[in-house]
Amino acid sequence: DAGVIQSPRHEVTEMGQEVTLRCKPISGHNSLFWYRQTMMRGLELLIYFNNNVPIDDSGMPEDRFSAKMPNASFSTLKIQPSEPRDSAVYFCASSLDRGGYEKLFFGSGTQLSVL
Amino acid sequence: SQELEQSPQSLIVQEGKNLTINCTSSKTLYGLYWYKQKYGEGLIFLMMLQKGGEEKSHEKITAKLDEKKQQSSLHITASQPSHAGIYLCGATGENTGFQKLVFGTGTRLLVSP
To answer: CB-CB: which of A50, A101, A107 is closest to B42?
Structure first.
């Protein structure tokens, strides 16, 4: 199994630019999560999808952030316009929701630096 | 909202020594997960506990969930350099939904030779 695949691994951009992070979940998984990790705030849940439908986006910082899941094998997290305070490691995770407690499988993350 | 506090925040132990990391919740824990993260990498699942008083072990790592289900501990026996990393507890609560994990602040572990 290839695991959760995220791209790019590293992204450096200038303030005001649009940034798109990509995620391919594990095949067969029906839940997908976007997390953000910083030294100050730790690991924060931004949004999660179940069967491609956004279930809870209460963690999305503001309107500059948007996430989509057009199909079961692909999701994007977009920041437009980006700001230096968005610099962080963004993780995607997936799981198989069978109505109980299931473990999340994490990707290797995207290190985002906004200058 | 549910909050998880981990202690200690960081820990340096000599190789071969035992250590314990704690995770305390502000609310009842319905599913408690332990993950390990190495620098520059994603999180690796270690164990998941559900029932009060439950204890699980894998190799030299043991995790427990107390009877009241508001605290969990992770114990490493005879630590090795390979145990170094960041340990995070994550939890689901009745008000977050089974699949929505919130994470603690993390404990950074260094194992010195």
So the answer is: A107
Q: What residues in B contact A95, CB-CB < 8 Å?
A: 99
For residue B50, what is the nearest residue in chain A, using CA coordinates? A101
CA A88, distance to chain mean position in Å, is 11
- The CA distance from B103 to A62, in Å, is 21
Judge: B101–A56 Cβ closer than 8 Å, yes or no. no
Write out chain B's pLDDT in tens, 113 residues: 668 999 999 999 999 999 999 999 888 888 899 999 998 888 999 999 988 889 999 899 999 999 887 899 999 999 999 999 999 999 876 655 566 788 998 999 999 98
In sequence order, which residues have a C-beta less than 8 Å from that of residue B32 and are 6 or more positions away? B23, B25, B48, B49, B50, B63, B65, B69, B72, B89, B90, B91
Cα–Cα distance, A108 to A92 (Å, whole number): 8
- Residue A25 gets which letter from DSSP? P
Q: Which of B74, B83, B86, B88 is nearest to B113 (CA)?
A: B83
Q: How confident is the model at residue A86 (pLDDT cuts 50, 70, 90)?
A: very high
Q: Which of A30, A41, A104 to mutate to test the interface with B (most CBs of B within 10 A)?
A: A104
